[in-house]
Amino acid sequence: MKKRILGISGITLFTLSACSSAEGSSSDCNIKGNVSYNTGEKIYHLPEDQFYDVTKINEDYGESWFCSEEEAEEAGFRRSER
After folding, report:
1. DSSP structure string for 16-81
2. What burial letters (b/e) apply to 19-42, b meaning 16+ CB within 10 Å?
3. Which pLDDT tens digit goes with each residue over 38-60?
4. CB contact at 8 A, 1 and 67
5. Largest Cα–Cα separation, the chain
6. Which are the contacts of 2, defined by CB distance < 8 A and separation ≥ 6?
């Protein structure tokens, strides 16, 4: 995720994610990072993947939007197999 660090004199107060949104993804950040409720496995879905349209993102459960596959993989997600 693209992050902007906000702080005073190098002290980080908080970070804002450009990709994260309760409303949905931005046009640049359309990769869905889903956490399996059954296994806890982290899986990311691209728009062309089979389950992309039915996958819902619940940020309270650790799910997120990503701007690149690299970002998703760095966060511990793997590509969906379908």
Report:
1. EESS--SS---TT--EEEEE-TTT--EEEE-TTSTTTTT----GGGT-EEESSHHHHHHTT-EE--
2. bbeeeebeeebbbbbbbeeeeeeb
3. 999 999 999 999 999 999 999 99
4. yes
5. 46
6. 17, 18, 19, 29, 67, 71
